Amino acid sequence: MVKSLQLQAEMTEEFGVCVFDVTLDCEDGAPVGGEDDHANMVVALANAAQEAPDLVAKGLRRRVGVRVHAVDHAEFAADVHTVVGLAGAALSYLMVPKVESLADVERIVAAMDAAARPGSVPLPLHVLIESPAAVHRAFEIAAHPRVQSISFGLMDFVSSHGGAIPSSAMGVRRPDDGATLDQFHHPLVLRAKLDIASACHAFGKVPSHCVVTEFGDVAALQSAARVASRALGYTRMWSIHPNQIRPIVEALAPDADEVALAAHVVQEAQRAEWAPIAVDGKLHDRASYRYFWHVLERAHQTGRALPEAAMSFFSVPVH
After folding, report:
1. Residues 232, 95: one domain?
2. What is the rounded distance in angstroms from the CA atom of residue 253 to the CA atom of residue 72?
3. Based on the structure, what is the number of domains in the chain?
4. pLDDT of 212-265, one tens digit each?
5. Residue 232: inside a domain, yes or no?
């Protein structure tokens, strides 16, 4: 966790924007019997992360969240009470794994609000969907106003099928392998990914793709990230090792040619006061303007260099 926070600070300063989230872990990271001590350690890390003097001076806020235990776990209430109560102001979100239903979401939100300090801004909720039943309810979960992002829990999803899905579906097959049913080719896994992405986009939420466990294979990681982004509609992706972060950010970023086109179209549209225009013989209207604006947003969020004329869209006015 400390290494990830350090890398986040370095890359935030490098790009001038926070290009990835750090989720401090109270679930898998906490030893049995040591949950309270672990939660307090996470609180200290989260609070310290937002007090980095160089970043504060430049007005750069980092995105740090905490994953607590599942809502039906004995430590859930204690986790939320400690984390939200003592570090809520330093957090960008709270993440809860193994969310099964809208009722789970409502219970989580109630616990978060009960633990929050009076007058504080309500924390957004990130949820992990990890079972067939939860995937079935993805649209209901995504519709809740406090849910900001849904992540897909690949390994728990596969194991919840009682051996009916092979272990190969937890991995990524080699480029020369056209037969193995990996996480991008097993029909049940692929359907779950598409359902979650569709639910998120229906309600303006962020779909976050699952991990690639082959953390030493950069080519496999980048290929998986590009497929998740271009083919499945995921705009975020989990890493399980700091070495995966830069390749994922690079793979999720729009191509330079697309960024240049987006900047040109949006600028021309602005000059035309958002009326339909022609660019290079192609018609553009408000539908394509919205698309290309999202390209510029994604470029900014991933640290892509923007054309100078487009930088004004993301600059903060000085008063």
Report:
1. yes
2. 37
3. 2
4. 988 788 888 999 999 999 999 999 999 988 889 999 999 999 999 999 999 999
5. yes
Domain boundary among 209, 231, 252: 252
Residue 140: partners with Cβ closer than 8 Å, 6 or more residues away: 101, 102
Report whether 96 contacts 43 (CB < 8 A). Answer: no
> What is the pTM (predicted TM-score) of this model?
0.89
Residue 79, H or E segment: helix 76-87
Q: Measuring CA to CA, which residue among 49, 56, 123, 53 is closest to residue 85?
A: 123
CB of 146 within 8 A of CB of 105?
A: yes
Q: What pLDDT is attached to residue 164?
A: 97
Tell me if 85 is assigned to some domain.
Answer: yes
Q: State the average pLDDT over residues 273-286.
A: 93
**Parent domain of 152:** 2-252
Looking at every residue in the chain, the average pLDDT score rounds to 92
72 and 12, same structural domain?
yes
Cβ atoms 192, 152 nearer than 8 A: yes
Is 217 a member of any domain? yes
Nearest to 70 by CA among 111, 38, 41: 111
The predicted-structure confidence for 138-178, as pLDDT tens digits, reads as follows 999 999 999 999 999 999 999 999 999 999 999 999 989 99
d(CA 69, CA 212): 22
More confident residue, 180 or 312: 180
> Is the domain of 266 the same as that of 235?
no
